[in-house]
Amino acid sequence: MKEIGPKALKWLKIIHLLLVVMFFGGILSSTALNLQIDLQNYNESYLAYKGLILISDHVVRYGAIVTLLVGFVYGFFTNWGFFKHRWVGVKFVLYLVQTKRSSASL
């Protein structure tokens, strides 16, 4: 496979970091919002769950999918590969399992 150049690798790292921040930020904000829901108040609960769905559908889902695509680019077009380093392989497999489980539950 052809490897990407240093400038493209720098952009790939920037995109990867932004997507990971978006993905995990969405998960953390969903958790924080879920912990603050007052179940005694129907209107507040309804609005909070609408916010959770919005975060899940637009932030977490797209962040996860595009991060996965960036991971494929890293695996195919850099010298990191998928399983050259054990921690990269373990992280990639765990990420695939987690993404599949969360996508199946939606």
Topology:
Blueprint: H1 6-35, H2 42-77, H3 86-105
| Radius of gyration, taken over Cα atoms and rounded to an integer in Å | 17 Å
Residue windows where pLDDT falls under 50 for at least 5 positions: none
- By DSSP (H or I, 4+ residues per run), the number of helices equals 3
Number of strands: 0
Report how far the terminal alpha carbons are from each other.
35 Å
Q: What's the main sheet like?
A: none
Number of domains: 1
Name the helicity range. Answer: over 70%
Transmembrane segments: 12-33, 59-77
Organism: Paenibacillus mellifer
Protein name: DUF2269 family protein
Keywords: Membrane, Transmembrane, Transmembrane helix
What does this structure look like?
Keywords: Membrane, Transmembrane, Transmembrane helix. The chain crosses the membrane at residues 12-33, 59-77. By secondary structure, this protein is mainly alpha-helical. It has one domain (6-105). It has helices at residues 6-35, 42-77, 86-105. The longest helix has 36 residues, at 42-77. The radius of gyration is 17 Å and the shape is elongated.
Would you kindly provide a brief summary of this structure?
The chain has 106 residues and is mostly helical. It has 3 helices and no strands.
Key features of this structure:
106 residues, mainly alpha, 3 helices
